[in-house]
């Protein structure tokens, strides 16, 4: 698929078939996303792949709205940024996340971005805290890193 077709075909997919995504495809997506430009070439973004169903279900509970569909995705990529490398970690991670989604489309997969950074777990109940600490604790993410988003991946169920 040429680049113009990738751009035209990319859309948010929240309903996936149960078909497993081959790890080679996921690795290809991460390889492509790793080439994304970054401020002063700091390469401050990194990625965590989640394929375990129980963990995906727990990720889907990080927010009371906007993340439930993650439990039905066969895989997800957590996009991380390193503020120790640059104060522009979130911008770099956003560019990398876009590359993840475009690469997924080019490889015949659907994807959907779920924002994590700055999002409360529940907009009406502040006592639930924020999505990012929940996710960092769940996945054992080191304090050094920030979580920008989770990108659900799979084959679109039309």
Quick recap:
The protein is built from 5 helices and 4 strands; from the N terminus they run ααβαβαβαβ. The protein is an alpha+beta fold and 158 residues long.
- Corresponding CATH architecture: 3-Layer(aba) Sandwich
CATH topology: NADH Oxidase
Number of beta-strand segments: 4
Largest sheet: 4 strands, antiparallel
Mean pLDDT: 97
Shape: globular
Name the CATH superfamily classification: NADH Oxidase
The order of strands across the largest sheet is 1-2-4-3
DSSP summary: helix tally: 5
How many domains comprise the coordinates?
A: 1
Question: What does it look like?
Answer:
There is one protein chain. With 158 residues, the chain is an alpha+beta fold. It has a single domain (3-154), classed as NADH Oxidase (3-Layer(aba) Sandwich). It has helices at residues 3-9, 23-33, 53-59, 89-106, 131-139; strands spanning 45-50, 75-81, 110-115, 146-154.
Quickly list its features.
158 residues; alpha+beta; four-stranded antiparallel β-sheet; 5 helices; 4 strands
Topology (SSEs and partners):
Layout: H1 3-9, H2 23-33, E1 45-50, H3 53-59, E2 75-81, H4 89-106, E3 110-115, H5 131-139, E4 146-154
Helix pairs in contact: 1-4, 2-4
